[in-house]
Structures are given as structure tokens and as C-alpha cells.
Fold each of these.
Amino acid sequence: MAIILRFVDKEGFLRERFFDIVMVEDTTAETLHQEISKVLLHHNLQVERMQGQGYDGASNMRGEWNGLQALFLRDCSYAYYVHCFAHQLQLALVAASKKVDPIWVFFSSLSTIVNVICASPKRLNEFHVAQVMHITELVVAGECETGRGLNQIGTLHRPGATRWGSHFTSVCDLIDKYDATCTVLEFIMDDKSTESLRAEASGAYNAIRSFQFIFILHLLKEIMGLTDVLCRELQHKSQDILNAMNLVEVTVNSLQKLRENGWEDFLEKVECFCKQHDIDIPTMDGQHSVSTRRSYCQQRSITTEHHYRVDIFYAAIDFELVELNGRFSERAKELLILSSSLDPVDGFKAFNIDNICTLAEKFYPQDFTRQELHILRSELIIYESDVPHYDVLKNVPTLSELCRGFFETKRSQRYQMIDRLIRLVLTCATRWRMTFWLIT
């Protein structure tokens, strides 16, 4: 386990330093908590003075009750945990959707399809030829527009475990190139030169021609389309926290709206695609039997609509909502929104005295006495007329540079309470993957 300390030095520089590396017997929250505490104690660093903690998004780290961050919060209730927002968010959402068994099977089939099509130059060339034929047929039938930049020939992209947006791209590719994909799979099935590849192509073809595969394909396009904007926004080097937090709310609300009101329109879209490509559509009020885990002989009888609507549609969206709400807790969002009032970007446009005072009073009560809170508000009134108009500081782009500017211009002595609050915020707010933060 690597331990990294994040702190602001006396001159206002934000530092992150490798501190120690520790061998651990396991990665349970309790073990990690004990080992980190030992390291801090060995160097005479008090856990009670922590101002933040950050880890990856594993459940043993971020668990609300027994995760590592929760254990340290019991030692120090102001050691706020702010998970790196952009850290593999989309991959975490994909992992959440895979908790629905049919979706896990879908991704397995998707990988097979992409591998069969793109594994050799010969099959890839056949795929390109099939696309040209399909586009030509659509143009002749008047079902496809022509023009510059339209109807581009491409390939299927593999959903990668470490690449942003690759799953969404892969799903969209398959929808756009569905006919060409089926054509190439049929070519391979008719090719008697490679028996093993024929069998693999046959399995892939049977999967891609099933209603359940098409249903999940479009469902993931809908869900990932809603979350992809958020994932890309959170990767920006410079973030507007207020807009980012607003986008989290918008994404959650959009998913909730899809869950509550989107079933009929979504099913109609799937059935339209199936009719267009001659895929059998099951009767929704028919019976759908599912084997239980205890015995293949035991089955629960449900309607086909229940299977697709409840077991897949609702379940997939619910797992996404749980993931988003777990990663962006109300407390963390409030902390960052209030902290953004100190951000000097765009000429201190986010500056708000009431928000800054609320930040100090609500999130840092141990660092400010009641008298110091009164002093803070008085300093902020003078600060508002001074710093945003001071040539040296009015154009600083980040809070860390503002902190350094405070030291260099001796504003840290004039605005001691504001300087203290800025240092606290800098110590807590981060986007790094794995850090353990401590203010010294």
C-alpha cells in the first residue's frame, strides 16, 4: 500500500509527497486502517489533524459504514472523503450494469463479436465491403442521405477495461453497423476452411440475432449516452465545480426519468429496430420461465414483459443510480460547491461571502472559533474590494496559485482567516486517484 501526503507548505505551495509504502496482509478496510495509523503514529502525525482522505472507488475504500474512509471518519469527523470524480467513472458504471446477469452475458457476446470481425485483415476487409454494400442499398432505396462526411466506413471498437468511453463507442458502432456485422458473420459461417472459427461465428450470430441482445444493446446506448457527457466533463483538467455538480444532478434526474417514464418509448424503439432487421419479437404478455440458482428444475414463471422491464430495464438503471449516488454523496457535493466560492477563476465570479462563511462554520468547526468566524466575515468584506482588483492576484487561474500569491504579496498576514480556509480546502479537494491527505 502506497501512502501519499497532501499538504500546503508555509509559502502557500500545494505539495503531494510520497510518504511510505507498506506491506499488508490483505486489503480489508480494517487492515488498511491499522497500517496507516501505525505509519502516522511512528512519525508523530496525529490522525485527529487530518483534513481529507482519498482512495480509489473500491467498496472496501468508500463503503459508507465499514469502508476505510468511514473508519477514519470515526477517528476524525472532519477528515472528509472526496473520491476522485473522473477516476474510471464510466468503467464503474459499466461494472454496475454488469451486476445484471443478462448484461454480463451481453458484454461477453459483444467481445466475441468484435474479436471475430476484427481479428484478421481479411475479415476486416470483408466488413468494410459489407458496409459499402449496405450503404449503397440504403441510398438506392432512398433511406439514406448522401453528402460530405456522411456514411463513413469504419470498424468495431473493442470495449476496453482502461479506456474512457470505449464501451459506449463499441455499443454505438454495433448499432450503426449491425447489418454489415451480420453479413460478415454469415460469410464466416459458410466458410468451411476453419471449423473452430465457424463455431465461434455461429454462436456470435445466434446472440446478435436475439431479441434480448438487441434490447440490452439499445438499453446500454440509452444509459451510457446519459452518463457519457458527465464522464467527459469530469475529465477536464480545469473544472467548474458548480457546473460539474449540476451535471451530476442532471444525469441522475435523467436516469430517474428514463426509469419512470421511458419504458414505452424505449420498447417501441427496440421493436422498431427488430422489425427493420427481421428479428423475432416475443409476446410481452407471454410466459417467461427462468431457472433459479438452487436448481435448474425449479423455475419461477413471470411474463416476458416483467423479465425485460423489471429484471433488466429497471435493474440496470437502479444499479447506475446507486453507483452515481454513492460516488457523489450530498455531503461531498455540498463541500465542493461551497469551496468553489473561493475559486478565483474568471475574475472571482463565484465569490460569495455567505457560502464561504457557511463552509468554515459547517465543515471546519474545529479550525475556527466563534470569534474567528466573525473575523472571517469581516475579512471577506474587505477582501472582496481588494483582491479581485489587485493586479498581481486578479488573474490567477487556480486556488493553489492564489494561495501562493497570498504569501508573496503578504496578503496571508492581512487575511489570516481566509488564508487558513484556503489551505484547508486545498488539502481536502483533489482529483488524484490514490492519496492519503493530512494537513501539517
Amino acid sequence: MKNLVALLGLISALVLSALSYRCYSSLCRNSTTCDGSEDECFGDRCITMSQHLHFGEDGRDIKSIFKGCANETVCRTKGSANAKNFIFRNNMKCCDGELCNTDDYDIPEEDPTPNGVTCPSAYCTGTLEECESDEEMDCTGSMDHCFDYREHVVDPGERDEKYSMKGCANSDACKYSFDNDVGVNVVEKKYGKCYAPSKSNNLQ
């Protein structure tokens, strides 16, 4: 029996060692380069996630990188969302192999061509209540959904702010409901919803 237990333990160790490998692991806010430490992973991929956040009329741009372990479900995700005075871009690049996630910041350009979808456009600060507005915006590129999002965040400069916004988003941004936010510390996510627009020439 002891020999059987030892054999099973050895097999388990060999299986785990075959499935695990190292990925670079780090979170670098307000930076377009990021090296980081090495982590043992039990996912099936390493990942480099680049993110661009633009808040407010003062033009604050936060470019950040996250590196670590991932699985196939999040790979090749390219989230995009626009609202009045707000831009969200997220790009997840996965690779397969030991310490393969050496990429730096990489955000593909969003297609600026209007796609026939219109959504309510609103941007309020200092509140987590719904931001009311009669304005609408023309959605572009892959952004064929409308969104309503409210959160309380602290940015890398320690600026504490509450935001309530409405605008256009693509399916990848909606899929994770903006939960993969790495550029800021999220104190509270009050509300997040994507929905089909009332007017659309392209949405199926």
C-alpha cells in the first residue's frame, strides 16, 4: 500500500509539472513597459494585457500593463468603449510557453467609421446615480452595443472619484462588464449593463 501511495504521489507530481510553467507576473500602472517577477502557472497560457483609460475633460490618460497566467477563454479579447469624455481600450494577448509574455504595451487602433448604431451619451462625476442626458452619440467600428456604467475608483495619482457614464461598447467590453480594469483601483462598482441599442443598422 505504501508503494502504491508513493507511486500515485509521483504520478501526480509529474502531471502537475507537465501542466505548469512560468509566466512573467506584474501590474504596471501609468507605464507602457513592464518586466515583473516570475510566477509558476497552472493555466494554459501566459498573458500580456494592455489597457488605456481616458477620463474627463482634463484629458487624463492612464496606460497600464498586466502580465500573468491566463486561460484560453480570455485570449484575443479586445474591449472598446466610448462615452462623452471617456475612452476604454483593452487588449489581451496570450502566448504558450515558458516566460513567453515579454510584450510591451499594445493597443490596436479602433476603426473610427460610424457603424449605424446610436446610443445615449452621458458623463457625470461625483455620483454613482444614473447620469441623465438627452444627448446621443454615433458608435464606430466594433462598438455595436450601448452601456450604462457607474463606479468609484482611485487612479494612480491617488485621485478619488465617482463616475457615471453612458455610451457605446463592443461585445468584448460587455462580456466582462469592464471587470478587467487594471489601470485604477476600483473601490466600488455600482452598476454595469450592456444592451442592444434602440436604433441600429448593423446589430443582429
